[in-house]
Design a protein that fits this description.
21% helix; 6-stranded parallel beta sheet; 33% strand; 47 strands
Amino acid sequence: MRNQLLFFLLWTISLTAQVVEKDLIPLSWTVHPLGKNDKMKATVPGTIHTDLLANHRIPDPFLQSHENEVQWIENEDWVYETTFSLTSRELQNAHVELVFEGLDTFARVFLNGQSILEANNMFRTWRVDVKSFVKAQNQLKIHFKSAVQQTNALAQKVPYPLPDDNRVFARKAPYQFGWDWGPRLVTCGIWKPVKLQFWNEVRIQHVFYEQKLVSTENAEIVVKVALESAAAMTLDLLINNQKRSVAVKKGTSIIDFPLTIAQPKLWWCNGLGAPHLYTFPVILQQNGKVIEQRELKLGIRTLELVQEVDAQGKSFYFKLNGKPVFMKGSNIIPPDSFVPRVTEAQWINLVENARLSHQNMLRVWGGGVYADDAFYTACDEKGILVWQDFMFACAMYPGDETFLQSVEHEVEDQVKRLQNHPSIAIWCGNNESDEGWHNWGWQKKYKYTTQDSTRIWNDYKELFHQRILQTLKKLLPQNENRYWPSSPAIGWGRKESLRQGDSHYWGVWWGKEPFEKYSEKVGRFMSEYGFQAMPSMQTLRYLSDGEPLSLMSKALRHHQKHPTGFATIDEYMQRDFWVPADIEKYQYVSQLLQARGMKIAIEAHRLAKPYCMGSLYWQLNDCWPVTSWSSLDYQGHWKASHYQIKESFAPVFLAVTQNETGISIQGNTDTLEEKKGKLTVRLIDFSGVELWSASKECVLEVEKNTTLMPIPFTAFPEFVKEKSVLLIEFSSHHKKTAVYHYFVKPKELQLEKPTINVKIIGETLQEISSNKLAKNVFLQAEGHFFDDNFFDVIPGIPRIIKTDRPTDTVKIRSLFDTMP
């Protein structure tokens, strides 16, 4: 009996010595308005809007114009409740912590009737030791105060208004308050998991690493393990099958664990090589028993942001593993207005769609949320570098110490969460706040005195040039602390914006300048530019929810958040295309218009290499069904622009520039080595007759753009520009890259009605051919994805298209169908 009791005690001690987490998400949660006994079932993680929708209390705000009918929600306070049980064994632990990974936003937490936490930042992780509050049966209640009411009250304490909207007083996703592509849905709720953590003598707080040296022979790294201990003790630490005895003090100790990786495999971005990752178990032991275990994934790579003064201004480019890399990518926004309902698969699919279109960088834009762990893991695994904004956008912010300290904690939490990802390329303070202050007329709009302006600007500098920077310096090794205070560095209306730093160029769209201006307005790193297009017809039918669709339908107009959006699309469409009155044809041409703009922009940026070393278009995705700048619509359909981006960002780059006397074929390669091959150029009329051809051996260089073949118009036989196309092909090692060049705008083409044939040649392969030039052939089969679309078919040169699964029912449209 005595031995059995001793065994039981040792078994209990062994269990309680471990660090254990308990997830409170599977629990049954309820929610109700404060002061009303109207309880509804709630989903956690979730939001109040999605809970009300699930309980049939509101219409879907994504459909028709129902957004207007749910605005009352933002002014209410809401209470979430649940109960949970603890075993006697769990109660024996010395430390019991409640961990909230995401409370949105102004939340007061009660445990068994005791107030244990006042939260005010949705981007922070909140930990509370509740050992003295917990018992066998527990009630957890979270009171969310209206963010609108709270921010309005905070604004009253400042003697002047701050641009843009009182939202700036909350550390809350800015886009919830509405944007020119998104709805106003100011939500609240438990948007990330709630957990209990049990521990006793010691636990792991954080695992990170510092890369000291990288060569072809060895990589020297130091794994750093932050341990929290209740007392001084000696422990064993095992990393990558290497064991060390370590002494820790009471409180927090950081243990350095050097590792050498022989002949390291480097992490490369998409298009340059494999994104190799190493996985190391990190095991904490005491007296031979495992206390806690983590997993550290890392990529061995060097990354520099190079800014050097040159004859044109100052460079701005990234050097990966010693190689200058032209960054090709886009800006992302949250994939939904209600982020908790975005699945890991959706985050991963976002990255995969970027990879498939030859992108190597994504910018997590500062007006949304820090992305899910699954997103960054996918970027690591697929070789996509991340430009990471902190969540500040298009506004000025308060400078009181409470706000600044909240931001410091937020930065610390997010950097510790993300710093081990090799995909993280740069940390950026904000989106367009510096530009807004200097170029958008805020001082005049808000009638600031000189004293007001001085204080607001000083608060800005304290936040973005001091506090965030100093926090990063504490957390990151010097070789990983790449910080950029504001994107862009200088506004697009000033010449200097094209000579240094990154640029947001909005002369096209906002300035109504023609697409051709992209060729003149090229900066050192183009981090924003773009043009709108309508989503797919499937998405338009979804948002209309049975309402008849037309260009003037209420649902369609409501899902255009830019004040002059459709008028701007109309104006550009009249310049380059025929403008259809039919909704389906108009939707199709709007996508062709966007694709044309992106083609001209990206070609201008890549032609300027190495002066320009980055092209990140606005924007990759949507947060709801909408007409916007995205290349992927809300339901994930590829717009015509995404297919064009896939072509324009291809590793082998070919482009044609044209003037009054002739054309010039130019190109480069974004691979690690130059490419030797054969360039073939063919002039073909729209009936498929070859009028002229030429070929030559040539070399595509890595570091700069090269003129491959200048051709004066006098070299061609007599031809009709409106009825001819130039087919340019580069062949190297049995791989072929082809581009098409038209001599006039689409609306000036003299197209004839094509007869387009579809021939099934394999389970998922289809051959598309035509008797006349078929311009911008759009294949559509409900629920099917085609690996190419909106393509051109020249008679005698069929296209082979792959779909994701067999289909023998394909609807076809071409540009001819939109002619008047």
